[in-house]
Amino acid sequence: MKARILVAYASHYGATREIAEFLAAKLRESGFEVDCSAMRELRTIDDYRGVVLGAPFYYGRWPRSARRFLNRFGPALAQRDVAVFATGRIEPTRTESEVRPQLDALLDRYGWLRPFASALFGGRWDPAALRGVDRWMRKLPGSPLHVLPATDLRDWDEIGAWATHVAAALHAAAAQPNSPPPNRSGPLVPARR
């Protein structure tokens, strides 16, 4: 039995979108029907049993499109199998354990969201591609970003292994269609601001 899956992402510069597309391809290889779409373009998620959400975090926050998506689709997401990934580490010297508390704090703002899997992946940093406020922030004298060289910390083997884990969990959930999604955990609680 195939279960339809949505991979929804927010991405400013394309790195998170590329991870989402990679995950969607891996889930298709595992036998799922998968749609991959930017969060801001989605009007409904009614057709999906499972949802994989991906967004970067900048300055300790998710982008506006990700926050709006979670606030809009919260009740529907609480009734589905949900996995979450984030990109946020662009400094080679910072470890996942140093950055992971930021992702956990972001997830805590949405107390009703109980993902069955979450991951933090390295991101891509390209100072030449910066726009708007990001370019301005980089120029601040105290910003560590003005000395950070271009880098890409996405580990595609790690991302692929996480995709395999997500696919196995989604297959297990699809095999028991009458059981509640693994992320369902009681009444919906609105996101804290």
From TrEMBL:
<dbReference type="InterPro" id="IPR052200">
    <property type="entry name" value="Protoporphyrinogen_IX_DH"/>
</dbReference>
<protein>
    <submittedName>
        <fullName>Flavodoxin domain-containing protein</fullName>
    </submittedName>
</protein>
<dbReference type="InterPro" id="IPR008254">
    <property type="entry name" value="Flavodoxin/NO_synth"/>
</dbReference>
<feature type="domain" description="Flavodoxin-like">
    <location>
        <begin position="5"/>
        <end position="141"/>
    </location>
</feature>
<dbReference type="InterPro" id="IPR029039">
    <property type="entry name" value="Flavoprotein-like_sf"/>
</dbReference>
<dbReference type="InterPro" id="IPR026816">
    <property type="entry name" value="Flavodoxin_dom"/>
</dbReference>
<dbReference type="Pfam" id="PF12724">
    <property type="entry name" value="Flavodoxin_5"/>
</dbReference>
<feature type="region of interest" description="Disordered">
    <location>
        <begin position="173"/>
        <end position="193"/>
    </location>
</feature>
